[in-house]
């Protein structure tokens, strides 16, 4: 069994902000639930292990939700192509 991967809060926030700046956070994906968008983003960015680890995924989703407002105000949300 491989050792558990751990991330500190700053790393999770950085990934959350990268997600919020991606196309998966744009209006193009509004029909998808936020957890599905995050999962797709992680898999596309070759971070499958984060998508597959329920504990890390939940923590990351919390960071995404906590930063949506800030990303929206700053204009950092994904592009609306």
Automatic annotation (TrEMBL):
Kindly provide the name given to this protein in its UniProt entry.
Answer: Uncharacterized protein
């Amino acid at each position: 069994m491989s050792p558990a991967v751990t991330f500190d809060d700053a790393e999770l926030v950085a990934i959350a902000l990268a997600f919020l700046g991606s196309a998966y956070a744009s209006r193009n994906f509004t029909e998808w639930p936020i957890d599905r968008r995050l999962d797709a983003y992680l898999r596309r960015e070759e971070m499958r292990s984060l998508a597959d680890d329920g504990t890390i995924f939940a923590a990351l989703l919390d960071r995404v939700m906590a930063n949506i407002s800030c990303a929206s105000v700053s204009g950092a949300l994904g592009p609306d192509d």
